[in-house]
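Researcher: For the annotation table, I need structure tokens for Indolepyruvate oxidoreductase subunit beta. Please keep the output clean. Sequence:
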Amino acid sequence: METKNILLVGVGGQGTITAAKLLTTGLMASGYDVKMSEIHGMSQRGGSVSSQVRYGSEVQSPVIEAGTADIIVAFEKMEAMRYINYLKPNGKVIVNDKEIWPMPVIIGKAKYHSDIIGELNKLADVTVINASQLAEELGNEKVTNVILLGAIVKAMGLDHIDWDQIIANNVKKKFIELNQIAIKKGMDLV
């Protein structure tokens, strides 16, 4: 199987790395060769975070080069724009309809782009979902990342993997059922 490249991008505290680790665990349990790398940046201060997951029959490197990502999943809109150059031609972008203003915007030194989705639509095949709102409706905004994981699973055709079991084995017991519901919600969105 040819190597597939998934780039997860977001802001510190959104669970980007946790989603990538769950994805990696599920892929490995299904027999894929998987490599993962992560960049934290100033993640504890609300800075950019990215996780790269590559899987296939034999993966040589954990690094996704510019222009080679099959899919970019952005947990925040501005991050989708920041990493769009990593998308391969005919790749797909899934964007959480969420704005988290960086410090320069908060203090008035910069402006948050008013039409990021419009700009992204000019550049790629984009699916916008409101994972944060769905997570709130489920009672816990922290499952936004698992909703987005479900969107990745469906978009990449990985729904044959037993994600309920992966979640049961890797999430605190009191959050298992909520996360299992969240991943299914994400799958239904794509």
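Researcher: And a one-line annotation?
Model: The radius of gyration is 16 Å.
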